[in-house]
Write a structure and sequence with these properties.
The chain contains eleven helices and no strands. The chain is mostly helical and 286 residues long. It has two domains: 34 residues, no CATH class; 201 residues, MetI-like (MetI-like fold, Orthogonal Bundle).
């Protein structure tokens, strides 16, 4: 029997254009150059701000008596720090703001979790919350002074009041906006309500709660400075106000710079704490 199978035909290899084109690799950027570029992007706006601050008074765009160049403010800041006046006032302001801020966390977080989780409690307290949340803390400062005096109690109390609302409202929102699918899944596994709250609601609410805590941190510094300007014998607010009244303008701006640095340090500390408590978000996002 003769085989009818045909021998395979020899074909010429296809053109090189049939293969996917290879792109030339870009040269790797050294880590040091990349780090320097990142630092430059983050600081260029700040450097430009201080440059404008330095050049505007010297060019006559603003009166240097009322806005001295930054080169005159830095020595004034150094003199205040060297004489101990800056550290003493900063310590006083920090103790006051941290006391009210810490009390606000202790009171507002549990109350917010309770209001967000239990609807009867929310229905009972919502009218009162709506009344006070729209009342500015600064507007109530004279009331706190009249009732609690001009001592430390009134200043800590006004910071406590001002910091409570961002933490409380963000905590309530955090509990109410948890993914319902997670709650249904936990209930389908037979978990009781306390365990659902512990294992599902609380971990999912932590990021939003920390958002309110960071907002409250900025509020604590702001309200404390205003309170110290009204009635105090120490603190950064008192330093700024007394410098303005004595026409020590460079010292006044030095106090403002110190407040900005204190606020940045406070916010950075809160960011580090937030990363520590929300580390699971980074791990699951890999």
């Amino acid at each position: 029997m003769v085989s009818t199978t045909k021998a395979p035909e020899l074909t010429e290899p296809g053109p090189a254009a049939a293969l996917p084109p290879t792109r030339p690799r870009r040269p790797a950027i050294p880590r040091a150059v990349a780090a320097a570029a990142a630092i430059l992007r983050r600081t260029v706006a700040l450097v430009a701000f201080f440059a404008v601050w330095e050049l505007a008074p010297r060019a006559g765009l603003v009166d240097p008596i009322f806005l001295p160049p930054v080169s005159e403010v830095v020595p004034a800041l150094w003199d205040l720090a060297e004489g101990g006046q800056l550290w003493r006032n900063a310590r006083t302001s920090l103790v006051r703001s941290l006391s009210g801020f810490g009390l606000a966390i202790v009171l507002a977080v549990p109350l917010g979790l309770l209001i967000g989780w239990y609807r009867p409690v929310a229905e009972l307290l919502n009218p009162l919350l709506e009344l006070f949340r729209n009342t500015a803390a600064i507007a109530l400062l004279p009331v706190f002074i009249l009732i609690l005096g001009i001592g430390e109690t009134s200043k800590v109390a006004i910071v406590l009041y001002a910091c409570t609302w961002p933490i409380l409202l963000n905590t309530i929102s955090a509990v109410r906006t948890v993914d319902p699918t997670l709650v249904k899944s936990a209930r389908s596994l037979g978990l009781p309500a306390p365990r659902i709250f512990q294992k599902v609601i609380l971990p999912a609410a932590v990021p939003t709660i920390f958002t309110g805590i960071r907002l409250a941190g900025a509020t604590a510094v702001l309200v404390m400075i205003v309170a110290e300007m009204v009635g105090a014998k120490e603190g950064l607010g008192f330093l700024i106000n007394s410098s303005q009244q004595n026409f020590a303008i460079a010292d006044m701006y030095a106090g403002i710079v110190a407040i900005s640095a204190l606020g940045l340090l406070f916010n950075h500390l809160l960011v580090l704490i937030e990363r520590r408590f929300t580390r699971w978000r980074t791990e699951t996002g890999r």
